[in-house]
Amino acid sequence: MVVKTTKKVRDADATQARILAAAKKEFAKSGLGGARVDEIADRAKANKRMIYHYFGNKEDLFRIVLEEAYTDIRTAEQALELEHLPAREALEKLIRFTWEYYLKNPEFITLVNSENLHKARHLKKSDKIENLFKRFVGMVGALLDRGVEEGTFRPGIDPVQLNITIAAIGYYYLTNRFTGSIVFQRDLMAPEALEERLAFNIETIMRMVCIDP
Fold first, then answer.
1. pLDDT tens digits, residue range 38-55?
2. Do 148 and 95 reside in the same domain of the chain?
């Protein structure tokens, strides 16, 4: 009986994981409005009844996918263990991580874009996001304080503003890569262009934060 119960739990967990992975791809590709539950069910090798049973309606499923997406990036940031590095080295590592995360997880950017079109109405219903971001802002704030103590960072920098800037200089580049490649007459996604952009991002942030960049 215990074995059967354990297997049932494992099967349920595996099904939910497949549904979430399929939903992430579908929402990232088509947005909330264009995403189809039938397509998610096909991708997940599940049926619509199971999706509604585990996650409620499509709006609820979208909110959970968003929560999972934000949880993933915030968890990965915590795993960097920046507190064990000198502040300047830690900040550069965070900038590199953010850029590389966006490149490796393009669905994250499209999901965030989609939620902004809906004026964050799903995140407003989330009881997870606030705690996730409190921990992250606390981590960046501690990094900045350490840099001031080490004599490398200017005092008085707002960790929220810094995070917005780090995110923005990578986010904008990637969300506008197609139009930018035409307007500026260069392939913004060529490997050398991506390396050049990362170096520019690091230099920009360091000049903002460091006493002696």
1. 999 999 998 899 999 999
2. yes
Q: pTM to 2 decimals?
A: 0.90
The structural domain count of the chain equals 2
Same domain? For 43 and 69 the reply is no
- What contacts 24+ positions apart, CB below 8 Å, involve 114-121? 114/27, 114/28, 114/31, 114/32, 115/66, 117/31, 118/32
Q: What is the pLDDT of residues 68-101, one digit of tens each?
A: 999 999 999 999 999 999 999 999 999 999 999 9
Domain span at 124: 63-209
- 3-state SS string for 42-76: HHHCCCHHHHHHHHCCHHHHHHHHHHHHHHHHHHH
